[in-house]
What we know:
- By secondary structure, the chain is mostly helical.
- It has one domain (3-185).
- The chain is built from six helices and no strands.
Amino acid sequence: MEYKKIKKLRRLYIVLSILIGVTAPVLCYFLLPNFNIQSEPLSKFGISTQTSQIWFWSLIIIALGIWLNGEYRIKELIKREPWKPVLKIILRVSVVCLVLTALIDMSYHWTHKIVALIFFCGYNLFVFMFGVVRSLNYLKKGIFSVGMGTLMLLTSLLVIPFPSYGIAEIAFIILISIWNTRILLKNSI
């Protein structure tokens, strides 16, 4: 397969995974009419019989899309060689933890919470560090990722007014979607 065709397929897959990342929670929300997003985490979709398969496969597809987009953009946009392995390790650990979050549902309470927390913190750190490393060469181009990483961190404050993680997780998903769409579609970031 030629390079341009592979690049188009990769971009198509990432766009589809972003769309799934936005639509899967909405679909699961409508399939569970008594689900309360203010008091229950999104991981409840993983233990409900109506939504568990949708939730599981959407997390797997999203994890692969996040990994493809991150790995390609590290290779393409990060100019400082010593930082590439660090960013790749942070990205890969985050993606593995997202896959583990899909595999280990909420019935394994603390194990699920730990791998989910590692994903949220790790991916947040990846986006922030991506921006910091980009800023070392191109200040203006790295600021977007630093800002998004900071906003991702601030979504955790949404657990203060709400008794569960649901709202914070939705805000985090929206920020992940915005960041991945921007770095996928813009060559100038």
